[in-house]
Design a protein that fits this description.
Length: about 100
């Protein structure tokens, strides 16, 4: 199985693209703060899925998928923070397909 064949990987790539578009409007003062942390967290989702697939072990794939889920929780929290700070109007837009 190749990671590019997984729908979850494909959807997470779409999420990365949406996150980058959304965070482009964050204030420049957040370039090394929330913007950077948000982008790193969202990029780690498909990256961990791919790494788990590359390990050629179901056990490792599951472990890395749990790590990706943790990164998704980070992204969710960072969206709440961005909304609270007034950087986004509706953080739910990013999480929709």
């Amino acid at each position: 199985m190749h990671h590019r064949d997984l729908n979850v990987w494909k959807e997470s790539i779409k999420l990365v693209k949406k996150a980058y578009t959304l965070s482009a409007d964050f204030p420049t003062s957040e370039q090394f703060g929330l913007t950077s942390q948000f982008r790193r967290a969202v990029v780690s989702i498909p990256s961990n899925i791919a790494e788990g697939c590359g390990r050629n072990s179901d056990k490792e794939l599951i472990r890395f998928c749990w790590i990706a889920m943790g990164s998704l929780s980070e992204v969710d929290t960072q969206l709440v923070i961005a909304k609270e700070l007034g950087y986004v109007n509706d953080a739910k837009k990013l999480m929709r397909a």
